[in-house]
Amino acid sequence: RQQRNHQQQQQHQQQQQQSNGGGRWKGNAGGGRFRNGGGGRGPKNEREQGPMGNGGEENLRQVEPVTSAPERKERRPNGYQRQRARQEKLEANIISKCSQREKLIRELDSCRVECLVCCELVRPTQSVWSCLNCYHILHLNCTTKWANSSRSDDGWRCPACQNVSKEIPRDYYCFCGKQKNPQYNRSDVAHSCGELCGREDLCEHPCTLLCHPGPCPPCQAMVQRSCGCGRTKKPLQCSQKDDIACEAICAKPLNCEIHTCQQKCHVGDCAECGETLEHECHCGKQKKQVTCTVSNLDNTRFSCEAVCDAQLSCNKHACTKVCHAGPCGECVLSPSLVTSCPCGKQAIVKGERESCLDPIPICKAVCGKQLPCGSPGARHVCSAKCHLDECPPCNKTTMVKCRCGHMDQQIKCKQLQTRADDARCKKRCTRMRSCAKHKCNQECCIDYDHICTKTCSQALTCGRHRCDKPCHRGSCSTCHRVSFDELTCECGAAVIFPPVPCGTSKPPCNKPCSRQHPCSHPVLHNCHAEPNCPPCVVLTTQHCYGKHEQRKTIPCYQGSFSCGLACAKPLPCGRHTCIKPCHENGCQSNAAEPEVCRQSCTKTRTTCAHQCKAPCHEGDCPPDLPCREMVEVTCECGNRKQMRTCHDFSNEYRRITSAQLASSMQEMQRGGSVELSDILGTGKPKSNKTLECNDECRTLERNRRLAIGLQIRNPDLSSKLQPNYSEFLRTYAKKDPALIKMIHDRLSELVKLAKESKHQKSRSFSFPVMNREKRHVVHDMCSMFGIDSVAYDAEPNRNVVATADRFKSWLPSMSLLEVIQRENGQRRVIVPNLNAWGRTANSSSSVAK
Which residue stretches belong to region Disordered (predicted)? Predict the structure, then answer.
């Protein structure tokens, strides 16, 4: 013990030394009351006498700190530290075996409960709030602020368990909720009232503990529980939910109320009776097996819908009725029933008929039976002689008036299907029935209310059944069917106990959704009845489909994305890469031929210098495929220009070459010499001068020769009229010629695009934002090209949009800058075409010859 105390004192001295500077101070200041005469103030045993004695002065200086024991050698824990470690380990062992209630009580007693909102310790004198779901303890003020900041239409979530609550806590209550603003008492648990808890969480018995945090312990009250059949009773704790079953037979009456359950004692309803009964029809011809139910026990016979065919009392005739219950009755031909002839005018002499097989005598009088035809007051009678069979058809006519009054005419009695006073016409009623949904459509209708006899059959609000009432006005009533099963939410936390009306939605649950989700992010939505969960919107880091770039703002449910760059994946052909924007799945869109590349071939043709541009193929490019590349062809003098396909140009060139070759052959036949290399084009590129010169070309050629002959400098060889530009444009062109040139080039390109367009009637170009003066220049320049111009937007973002029509726009013969140069005498020198000049001179000399 003395050694342990000595070590503790040394440790305390070292801590004080480190807190005061960690070194020893040397020097004396004189006049100090120290043991060695040194000056200055400092801790005891930390001063040393300076070299000047007790009267000298010396500057204080810090020397190297004394090396502590832990730096020299690792200090072994003393007995106190080992005992402290054992106590902490024992306490951690005890806490791990404690319930949540006991842990909360320990933490409250030691002030170790931490608020999850402010991360501060919860003091015994502070107002708190406890979650009724997870029992976490938070500051009341922090909880109120948290609820106000995170509240939504459904409520606010607990920061610990995400349980949704409707009301925001405002008042401070004890854990059991009995006392408001409880006073702190050292003998009780902090924030408790000190009274019995009394909460009834899971059963009807109140909690017997003092007011406490956390959940109540399982109920320890003893109750009598019966087995499934009710014969055995056993005392159990209320919290025990074990089912009790004895070894006896259940013997409860089944649904038929005759047989009993033969299973062993069980909990819950017994199964339906599985016995079968044999029912026989009334005539005894058929039998059927039915399940044992109360209704089947009451009705043991049925009608087979066949003819009875049972022997009558005469034992000579059979019953002609449909299978029926009860006796068949007496034979209709019995002598006791037949006492006269068929018409009833002559009685049968007693003893004339002794059996039902004896013939019935017939008299010679007229039958005279009333027929169904004729007017109600004067029915027609049968005019045939007395007979046994039915009366023949009547040959007279009857005045018939239908019941609705639409038909009133004479009809042959043979055509009458009903009585004359009950005749029906074919007119259909067009009035609406009582439901206001269907028309009557009844023939010869005499109804006043027109009651609808159809079944409603509209879907009820439950969405499962249809209305079985007669068709009616207005909305159908709610479904009357109920279920006697518990209706729970998806996770089973919220329950609606039976009876449950049909169509009742699943109860709302404030618990987080417990379904399996495809991602591992925290669930932010409640338990729901919808088949699919809301998509996860947590931002994640994902690569695009083609792995070109990575973004950190992609919602989790989206997975990947398209970056918009070209896919650039190699295609199966091995010569091209995918040019589609970044996409998923395969690069080939043709499902029938996924391995076929649809891009254009980039090989150079052997016949021309253009690319093949045929669909991607193997081997050499097909020589017979015409080249569709556009080339510019001119005339010999270069005045005419035109765009043609390379294929047409090659055909035209071959035609011209063939014509030249033919003329050269004729020259050779006359004895002249011809240079074939000039005709066949060997050793020089193919010429694009395949157009013929027109009158304008000849006029330009004549003007060139005249200008050379007259020695005119910078001649204007064109015969076109000079465009009349406004004075405003001329002045502005001198001030800003670069803008004028830009506008002229843009409008020229726009007109060319409009003229070359095959499918669009017009083309448009949007100029950048300009001020008022520059927009004026654009409008005036557009008028010189036949282009429509409109200004859009407000200042200072107003700009001009020019639209060139394919048929209404044109190119001016001279630009504005060329006109100004000509006016100033700065004309561009146009070099004459020497080839054309020489050719013309040669031809003229040959003509002269």
Answer: 1-87
Contacts of 32 (CB under 8 A, 6+ apart): 38, 39, 40, 41
Give Cα separations from 396 to 369, 379, 401, 416, 584 (angstroms): 15, 11, 16, 11, 89
For 145-163, what is the mean pLDDT? 83
> Dihedrals φ, ψ of 375, to 5°?
-70, 160
Nearest of 492, 562, 579 to residue 527 by alpha carbon: 492
Domain count, the chain: 3
Residues in the chain: 849
412 or 739: whose pLDDT is higher? 739
Rounded Cα distance between 790 and 766, Å, is 10
What integer best gives the mean pLDDT of the chain?
A: 79
Give CB contacts under 8 A, 24+ apart, made by 294-298: 294/255, 294/256, 294/257, 297/256, 297/258
* Residue 414 lies inside a defined structural domain of this protein: no
Q: How far apart are CA 780 and CA 771, in angstroms?
A: 15
If asked whether residues 196 and 110 sit together in one domain, one would say: yes
What secondary structure letter does DSSP report for 477?
P
The token pair that represents 165 in the structure block:
């609550």
Number of Cβ within 10 Å of residue 229's Cβ equals: 20
DSSP strands (E only) in 332-459 = 370-375, 378-381, 397-401, 408-412
Assigned domain for 649 exists: yes
Contacts of 433 (CB under 8 A, 6+ apart): 439, 440, 450, 451, 452, 471
Q: Supply 37's token pair.
A: 């005469």
Please give the residue range of the domain that contains residue 757. 727-829
Q: Which two tokens stand for residue 9?
A: 């004192």
Query: Any residues with CB less than 8 A from the CB of 675 and at least 6 apart, and which?
Result: none
- Residue 255, CA distances (Å) to 2, 17, 260, 293 in order: 89, 93, 9, 7
Structural domain contains residue 500: no
Q: Which residue has the tokens 């089944």?
A: 254
Same domain, 784 and 687: no
Q: For residue 745, what are its two tokens?
A: 């080039």
> Which residues share a beta bridge with 400?
409
Same structural domain, 116 and 194: yes
Q: With beta carbons less than 8 A apart as the criterion, state whether 691 and 634 touch.
A: yes
654 and 760 together in one domain = no
Is 28:59 a contact under the CB 8 Å cutoff?
Answer: no
**Mean local confidence (pLDDT), 476-503:** 87
What's the DSSP call for residue 434? T
- Number of H helices and E strands in the chain, helices first, is 14, 27
* CA–CA gap between residue 315 and residue 355 (Å, rounded): 11
- Residue among 540, 555, 546 nearest 584 (CA): 546
CA distance 510 to 508: 7
Question: Which tokens go with 601?
Answer: 């071939």
Map 318-342 to HEC letters. ECCCECCCCCCCCCCCCCCCCCECC
Cross-strand pairs, 156: 165
- pLDDT higher than threshold 50 for residue 836: no
**Cα distance between residue 39 and residue 62, in whole Å:** 15
Sorted by sequence, the CB contacts under 8 Å of residue 160 that are 6+ apart come out as: 116, 131, 134, 136
Tell me: pLDDT of 43 over 60: no
Specify the pLDDT at position 592. 56
Tracing tokens 């001198």 back to the chain, one arrives at 734
